[in-house]
Amino acid sequence: MIDLDEAGGVTVVRLAHGKVNALDLELLERLTATFAQLDVDSSRAVVLTGSGRAFSAGVDLWRIVDGGAAYLHAFLPALEAAFRAVFSIGKPVVAALNGHAIAGGAILAAACDHRVMAAGTIGVTELQVGVPFPATALEILANAYGGPQARRAILAADTLEPAAALTTGRVDELSLPDTLLETAKARARQLADRTTPDVFRLTKRQLQAPALHRMTPDPRVLRLWLRAAEDGRLRRYMTAVSSGRPRRG
Prior knowledge:
Layout: E1 2-7, E2 10-15, H1 25-40, E3 45-49, E4 54-56, H2 61-88, E5 93-97, E6 100-102, H3 104-110, E7 114-117, E8 122-123, H4 126-129, H5 135-145, H6 147-156, H7 162-167, E9 173-174, H8 180-193, H9 197-213, H10 219-230, H11 233-241
Parallel strand pairs: 2-3, 3-5, 4-6, 5-7, 6-8, 7-9
Antiparallel strand pairs: 1-2
Helix pairs in contact: 1-2, 2-5, 2-10, 5-6
């Protein structure tokens, strides 16, 4: 589900969950626990990447369709907790985007301090799916992209290939696939070497403080997700995109 590899003070966290690393309850809980542990261990920095053809293609919507209200009541808090765990760890985190980073996958990437992209597309497609963003996701996107670019990305609900993603600020640099991981690890080390760990931690917290303060769960988000599951909207969406396209949301 998650593979860890440490070298030279940098821990690589690799999502290895199905064909497209779709976000389900179990993966989210493991991700939260992993980053909580990394926050207090001896690692100097972290690289978050995926396996196969995707970084993460987003929420596993079929699990929501099948699990119904009981699953959603557990899932949405776990989703916000995982986003926040990646965002708020007091160490440098670099996203190594080996493939598609869609919706929840794009938000995980935005939660990192630096994003390196080698392949695939990136975008937040929640409005296409017909579900709202949790407050945590909106704050992470605004923090990463800046308010105007985040607003454009959210309302466009589009996905961009690497060159366009770099131009619009969804990623910070591009890499060839063969050198992606080494580039990401080098950037993580550079961030860690820039100052002492305690100064980096405090500075990161100061920069994030306004966003963290606004990450208050909105009960309307759960109600609208429940409605989307119950009125058949999610099932219709997934049926329409099921021919060769990954589950995402």
